[in-house]
Design a protein that fits this description.
By secondary structure, this protein is an alpha/beta fold. It has 12 helices and 19 strands. The longest helix has 24 residues. The termini are far apart. The C terminus is likely disordered.
Length: about 475
């Protein structure tokens, strides 16, 4: 049985208090963990029948794709569920020093390898979700309502706060009757298909503003058997797509003796799913590693393709009036280009925000939570959209300051190929353990200049900081 995760310092729950979470994905599960400290009962409502073992499910269509638990996400899950990382590793996840045990190609430049102390975890989404779900299910007062659809929140005529949710079983014989489930707090963690803006409008509340940044990314994942000779014994390799070379990909050690190989492309570049086509696509990446795995490793399943059109952020923090007792979290709040692997980490960070505010008291909770959650997603949103907006096809207007920053970061990526300290800072920012401003710190600017001089000297004066990104 997993260790108890209930915080000893949590405030005692109110008598017969009940919170409802819509969705049993990572955002819903981590939110339920936070709610378990402050509410006597927590009900997690999920449309799917939840598998008893780690397995993909319909409600998580990206579950078969490559996933990585970023450094910040690993630390957040350990904070929410003490001992979780040991449990995850024992179940087959592969921990790795992000810079010392993996290769990174940034704009076609290979980042200089060195031990970094930044440990991420290669694990399939079904495994991570299965272990988190078991932890949540073991909490006192938590129950799961599977195969159930949420039709909307219950809001009295005064429109001030929710008093419950309307639900309907999906698999009952005949016409299933609608039911009302009373609740003191409702948290929508239903993902990118969230109907929360529509529900707010129905209740007479303002809808949030929405920002979308075109990503137009298509990605294909296939799993292979991992053997000791692959990647020279390293844990993984990643290739960053960039303007002029919109192809990217990664090979990651996951779930024991498996590799997850993902190929992705943006703005018209679409990886194929047939073996010969995937190999030809990988052979045009800036390093040979992914192609070698595709050429020599034993495939374990069929390729799976996904398309992601745009990053989407709903600005609930800007509303001048909130519906009491109603929160939104995870992809329902903000979703990112999946190529950056930020979703699970962002969800866990928002759960930590929720837990902190609930420990302080539930008064004015929506306003407080949405403002703090917005700050929590600022960094992953900046990183993901900043990468997408480098492409002129994103069709977003950028000012002189943006172009100046792009030029600096292009040179930064090149200099990281000769300066391991620059590589560590870049990866620490990408894994959300250091703020993006660290990339522009005076000491880092000086190192970039020195790195570029070293590159020019090595290239006989021809280096300009641009990788060609192709082979």
């Amino acid at each position: 049985m997993p260790p108890t995760d209930r915080a000893t310092a949590a405030a005692p729950p109110a008598a017969s208090s009940h919170a409802v979470v819509i969705g049993a994905g990572m955002a819903g599960l981590t939110a339920a963990r936070a709610l378990g400290d402050a509410y006597e009962r927590v009900t997690v409502i999920e449309r799917d029948a939840l598998p008893a073992v780690p397995a993909p499910r319909r409600g998580v269509p990206q579950g078969r794709q490559l996933h990585v638990l970023l450094v910040r996400g690993a630390r957040a899950l350990e904070e929410l569920f003490p001992g979780f990382l040991d449990e995850l590793t024992a179940a087959g996840a592969v921990p790795a020093d992000t810079q010392g045990e993996a290769l990174w190609y940034l704009d076609g430049h290979l980042v200089r390898r060195a031990p970094s102390g930044l440990v991420s975890y290669g694990a399939g989404r079904p495994l991570v979700e299965h272990l988190v779900r078991a932890r949540v299910a073991a909490l006192p007062g938590v129950r799961f309502a599977e195969g159930t659809e949420v039709l909307g929140p219950v809001v009295p005529p005064d429109g001030r706060r929710v008093t419950g949710v309307r639900v309907r079983p999906l698999r009952a014989a005949g016409a299933a009757a609608e039911e009302v489930l009373p609740a003191d707090l409702v948290v929508d963690a239903s993902g990118r298909g969230s109907r929360a803006p529509h529900w707010l409008a129905e209740a007479g509340c303002p809808r949030p503003e929405t920002t979308r940044v075109r990503a137009d990314v298509v990605y294909v994942t296939r799993h292979f058997r991992r053997e000791p000779h692959h990647l020279g014994g390293l844990r993984g390799v990643a290739y960053q797509a960039h303007p002029g070379a919109p192809r990217g990909g990664a090979v990651l050690s996951v779930d024991g003796d498996r590799f997850a190989v993902v190929l992705h492309g943006q703005f018209g570049e679409e990886p194929p799913t047939d073996p010969a086509g995937m190999l030809a696509y990988a052979e045009r990446l800036p390093g040979p590693e992914a192609a070698e795995v595709l050429r020599t490793a034993e495939p374990l399943d069929e390729p799976v393709r996904m398309r992601y059109p745009a990053g989407t952020r709903h600005h609930y923090e800007r509303l001048d009036r909130h519906l009491g007792g109603f929160l939104v979290t995870g992809d329902a709040l903000c979703s990112f280009n999946p190529a950056y692997g930020q979703g699970m980490t962002a969800a866990a960070q928002q759960a930590l925000v929720l837990r902190r505010f609930l420990a302080e008291g539930a008064g004015d909770l929506p306003r407080r939570f949405f403002r703090a959650a917005a700050r929590a997603v600022d960094t992953p949103w900046l990183l993901a959209t900043g990468g997408d907006l480098r492409f002129p096809e994103a069709a977003e207007r950028r000012g002189p300051a943006d172009r100046l920053l792009d030029a600096y970061l292009t040179r930064y990526r090149a200099a990281a190929s000769v300066d391991a300290a620059l590589g560590r800072t870049f990866l620490a920012v990408a894994h959300m353990v250091e703020p993006p401003a660290r990339l522009m710190a005076p000491g880092r600017v000086l190192r970039v200049l020195r790195g570029l001089r070293a590159l020019r000297a090595a290239d006989g004066g021809a280096a300009d900081g641009q990788g060609d990104g192709s082979r």
